[in-house]
């Protein structure tokens, strides 16, 4: 295994004792794309920060290709590339210079750094922008430059922390394509995300985490099969008075897994929408149905079944 997390724990002691990471055990295979999926505050970024030597764990270990990141941080940093949540490109350097000087920092000669920088700019379709400064780039282009810079020294593992945050749909798709190319190059990728479609599209395996703990682990398809991902109906209602009777009626149906009141209406989880949808709309009309959203079986429905809340909560 190229990356190993063993009983990893991080506790922040202050007026409130916060357990950010609570005994995580994970192993990443060489060349796979591995997703850490969870809502904001689940412990994803803290886990990445420990693995990339930016934060010390309270207990437990992280090993990159057998190297303990706490005992040998300098050695570990040569094996990893990091793309943080926020743009960290040097604004005083051009796109080419950002990649070139990264190579020089890792011991490349002038000729090697120049060749590697030009190679990556071509790979990420940035050659025409090599003389542009980061402030002149869109969010999607800047993210591609950050990924190119992060892998310039040929690391074995790339950590991507919320790579799609703030990107428009078109830029997000371009970023996904760039990440998928890394798998072909043999680079192991660990990405954190709260976008279920991102984890589903990119990841060979996914760990669903919340409150610093791993709730489920496996391929996206395996998780959906194992946890019987179902269809979720969220109804916004004008009136919640007497909703208990509707909930009881729905819970009596064999095709309904659960029905529960929410802050502004009703949430129903069912094995299928066949036959249920028209009856649900008709019944909810008596409570002043304002809106209805349907979430088809996905990693998000797996997460809701495990935790009872949305990924974005």
Describe the overall structure.
It is built from eleven helices and 14 strands. The protein is α/β, with parallel strands linked by helices. It folds into two domains: 3-223, 3-Layer(aba) Sandwich (Rossmann fold), CATH 3.40.50; 230-296, Alpha-Beta Plaits. A hairpin with a 2-residue loop joins strand 9 (205-210) and strand 10 (213-218). Helix 3 (95-105) packs parallel to helix 5 (139-150). The mean pLDDT is 90.
Q: What value does the Rg take, in angstroms? A: 23 Å
Fraction in beta strands: 25-35%
Query: Alpha-carbon distance between the termini?
Result: 33 Å
Query: Under the CATH scheme, which class of the largest domain?
Result: Alpha Beta
User: What's the pLDDT, averaged over the residues?
Assistant: 90
Order of helices and strands: EEEHEEHEHHHEHEHEEHEHEEHEH
If helices are DSSP runs of H or I spanning 4 or more residues, what is the number of helices?
11
Major β-sheet annotation? 6 strands, mixed
In CATH, the homologous superfamily of the largest domain goes by the name: P-loop containing nucleotide triphosphate hydrolases
- Shape estimate: elongated
Low-confidence blocks of residues: none
Read across the widest sheet, the strand sequence of neighbours is 6-7-8-3-9-10
By CATH, the topology of the largest domain is: Rossmann fold
Number of domains: 2
